[in-house]
Amino acid sequence: MNTKTLPVLSIATLAYLIQPLTAGEWSRWHGPNGDNIVEAAKNFNPDLNNWKIAWQEQVGLGYATVTTADGRAYTMGHDGESSETIVCFDAATGKKIWDYTYQGDLIPKMHVGGPNASVVIDGNNAYAISKDGQVINLNAKNGKKNWSAKLIELLEIELPNWGFGSSAVVYKGDILISAGKTIALDKRTGEPSWISNVDRAAGYGTPVVFTKSGKDYIAATDADGISILNASNGKEIGRHDQKVQYNLNATTATMLNDEGAIFFHNNTNSAVLDFDGKSLTEKWSDRKLKNPFTSSVKYGNSLYGLNGKQGSSAILYSLNTSTGEHNWEVRDYGFASLIGVGETLLILTEDGNLITAPANAKEYKEISRKKLIDKTCWTNPTYAGGKIYIRNDQGILICLTPA
Fold this sequence. Notes:
By secondary structure, this protein is mostly beta strands. The chain has one domain (37-402): 7 Propeller (Methylamine Dehydrogenase, Chain H). The chain contains one helix and 33 strands. The strands form eight sheets. Strands 1-27-28-29-30 form a five-stranded mixed β-sheet, with no helix packed on it. The protein has a four-stranded antiparallel β-sheet with strand order 2-33-32-31, with no helix packed on it. Strand 3 and strand 4 (72-78) form a beta hairpin. The longest helix is centred in the middle third of the chain and has 5 residues, at 151-155. Residues 1-23 have low confidence and may be disordered.
């Protein structure tokens, strides 16, 4: 491992520029604060033996997470033939409130296919991105379409090899989407406000907005690395190149807000990068540490994540963000995704085991493990409104509540 001690950095505290959210909602990709962590309800019990299945529904093929707002749960799925559907459920009962179906490509390459992006809720608006790059704005209350746009046409690109993966990010009056180029669309009309000025091969991660010295920037990943863009016009300011396997960079950068650094991870290596307002500098990197699909969560000075590809050989780890040194690792863990609920890690393994463990940098100590679902689970779990949501690639969606 190549490690260096991080100096005291001057980047201001990370500010995710979104409207205020009710505590416990999960209305966008990576949760209310964009850090994959959500506040735990007072009745949250980390022992999964004290949870039960409240309802279960079929939502179609794909990997879209569940997002929530105002007592409603949203997700997406594909019928396996020619149609994709955005669906809204009553979070308490699982009763379908509305759905919106449209023609869309499945794109099943080395997986079952179907949508990757999360439905993003902003007030009365729902924003969704199909696997083939349709951007759709619906009324979040009744599912009626306001507008739609096609990323292939707007960006003047060919369909990415694995389709589109970026979720929309609400920023001021726009939504931001990355697919090699990053685009800002007026959230009221769908018209482009700007398109980033440098062509890049498409990646599949979601852009991240952050603030440094009173200015807003975007961290956008692509097939060959990560760029820092001016949030007002998309102009590229800083760049870090990193060739990834199969041109498949599918993760979202993690902002290390208390140290002013960016954790950039992919299927070939991981690194902490410092942005000084003009350029990106690598502080440490580790070619053995690989996060191919899932993002990490950060508590204090420690990151928790998965190292390795799909299968039982993946490693669950905790590391020190300042030095890159590992706190602990659990081998042969199985590929998984994870979020933070209060001070608890909520982990969903590839084969459908839901696991809880404390976010403890000193040791890994499993609290509970519960087998809930079959087939392949590559979708982040969601915790919102005191409920846990999980799904598999076949479209089985399960909502858990305290028993």
